Amino acid sequence: MTDAVASDLGADTRKPARFLYISAVVLLCAWVIVPIYFLLINTLSSPETVTSFPKPFIPEFDLGSLTFFAGFAGILTALKNSVVVAGLTMIMSIAIGAPAGYALSRFDFPGKGLFRLLILLTRAFPLPLLALPLAVLFIRTGLDDTAFGLALVHTTLAIPFAVLITFSLFSGIPIELEEAAWTLGCTRLTAFTKVVLPLILPGITASAIFAFVISWNEVFAAAVLTIENRTLTAFLLQNLDTSPLHLKFAGGFILVVPALIFIFAVRKYLFAMWGIANR
Amino acid sequence: MNAGILPYVLILPVTLFLCVFFLYPFVLVAQQAFSDGSNFTLENFREITSHWKFPISLKNTLLLAAAVVPVQLALALLMATMVTRMQKGRDIVLYIWTIPLGISDLAAGIIWLAIFDQSGFLNSMMSGMGLIDKPLNLLSYQNPGIVFLAIALAEIWRATAIMLVILVAGIGLIPKEYYEAAEVFGASPWKRFLRITLPLLRPSLQTALVLRVILAFEIFAVVAALGGTLFPVLMGETYSYQFDLLNNRAAAAMALIILAISIGFTLIILRVLRVPKGASI
After folding, report:
1. pLDDT range class, residue B276, cuts 50, 70, 90
2. Where is it found, in Gene Ontology cellular component terms (chain B) (predicted)?
3. Containing structural domain, residue A138
4. Does the structure's ipTM exceed the value 0.95?
5. Which terminus of chain B is more exposed, N or C, with fewer CB under 10 A?
6. Would you say A262 and A83 are in contact if contact means Cβ atoms under 8 Å apart?
């Protein structure tokens, strides 16, 4: 394909540059993938191999570490807690955030600037720190050490993204479509559910997945707010000093797997989301 | 429903939620930090700043941010310009490069532990090349430089993706005509990058830097996984005040200090990279 665009520069000066470019791309891909591959080797090795030296560079497909992980006291509960908290975060952030995204894309109203500022402000603060005062508040209200309490904090983390993403999604649907539905006898609500919602559903799913990942990955607030009902990240963090290496690696791998799938699922929306969020 | 109040009804849930779980906790954290139970006091701040670990953890956090963020910015800019020129395989390359975006800091720490640990892959590689004959304990107090390097690499590996996404989105917004015009006038690719991409990318650079710098001050789990107590950072100290020492007033005071640093740097970045009025694309 280089021949097709062979231009005034000539092939001699082009080839080395192209070679350099391609090898840089490959190198950067390897920089991302190779560390994950190392984790995979460790996860699929027997506990003895994990601590042995020197290491094999090919996985031996031994499920010893993963079985140990599954049998470790409390870890499956922690895994379940992680899923529950992330699921709750996903539902709450979309249910609360999407209407605001719609309002921002469809209406000009006094106070809109202030509202946008509030949303953007949340991104300019180290939010996990909020878990500290909330820990005290939650004890008073009985929300301490519950999945719901933690999900509330994670929702605060996810909501700015939910609002901005749904804002960009709704902005992509011409208002004329809705107006046409109104003239054909739809109310504002039925026009929304029959016309806008089907168009927007894949995008909403993507931003829900994004909220799930934010909660799934969060460590600090989870570690501060849960004691008995630890999430997987909090559980691993708390046992870092005491747990054997193969447990850490298996746990780390379990944390990574959903991330790989989720990023693949939302990849189409990733850039559209941020493009509009910058403005 | 009346179109006049509809938008307010729609934004009400978010506003209420953020008031209760974002603004109110800030009031609470300030209250905790400045009180000894009933009276106003600065004692909590005096207590934490006079602790021997405070200057070290402050220095470590700032040094790490200073080492990591510029590398990430350069790397993200390089990757973003590379990907915009790409014709074939753009989607797969972008997917691979954005994978770390979904990986938690704790998992990233564990991934790099697999490399730097005593029985890790770095030791295995070095022995394979005949550099060493027995594994070295790289992450120990005798090698503070290597501990720092491991943490910095893990951070660069993990969090460059977020900047990349923002910058790729930003480059996508720059009209192609500018580049075509520059090419007509014979500007080299490097000149085009300097004179078109960089200035027009300023809003995205702003967002990316603010987000990244704040996350850099929040660094916690990567350090916990790789350095443990060898490399104290502000967020880790906050956690141990809250959890190990059960002193939530001191933890609140630490939180306010991290907050103040974050806000300070945010304002500096916004000021330095400010977009002149009416100059947006």
Report:
1. low
2. plasma membrane
3. 68-277
4. no
5. N
6. no
Yes or no, beta carbons of A53 and B172 under 8 Å apart: no
Answer whether residue B89 is part of any domain.
Answer: yes
- The domain boundary residue, chosen from A48, A64, A80: A64
- Those residues whose C-beta lies under 8 Å from the C-beta of residue B233, and which sit 6 or more positions away, are B57, B60, B61, B64, B219, B220, B223
The pLDDT value recorded for residue B254 is: 87
Q: Please say whether the beta carbons of B162 and B233 come within 8 A.
A: no
* A4 part of a folded domain: no
Residue of chain A whose Cα is closest to the Cα of B280? A279
- DSSP secondary-structure letter at B114? H
Categorize the per-residue pLDDT at A9 as very low, low, confident or very high, splitting at 50, 70 and 90. very low
Number of C-alpha atoms within 13 angstroms, CB side, residue A217? Answer: 28
Q: Is residue A15 part of a domain?
A: yes
In a domain, A154, yes or no: yes
Amino acid at site A214: I
Do residue A143 and residue A256 come from a single domain? Answer: yes
Cβ of B221 within 8 Å of Cβ of A219? The answer is yes
Residue located via tokens 């697999």? B114
Q: Closest residue of B to A129, CA-based?
A: B255
Q: Which CATH number characterizes residue A215's domain?
A: 1.10.3720.10
Q: Between B1 and A78, where is the model more confident? A: A78
Give the position of tokens 């709750």: A88
* Distance between CA atoms of residues B170 and B211, nearest Å: 15
List, as ranges, residues 78-137 from A with C-beta within 8 Å of B.
95-97, 99-100, 102-104, 106-107, 109, 111-112, 115, 118-119, 122-130, 132-137
| Contact call for residues A234 and A223 (beta carbons, < 8 A) | yes
Q: Which residues of A touch B135 (CB under 8 A)?
A: 53-54
- The confidence score (pLDDT) of residue B125 equals 77
The tens digit of pLDDT for each residue in A237-268 reads 887 777 777 788 888 888 888 888 888 888 77
pTM of the entire predicted model: 0.83
Note the pLDDT tens digit of each residue in A86-108.
999 999 999 999 899 888 888 88
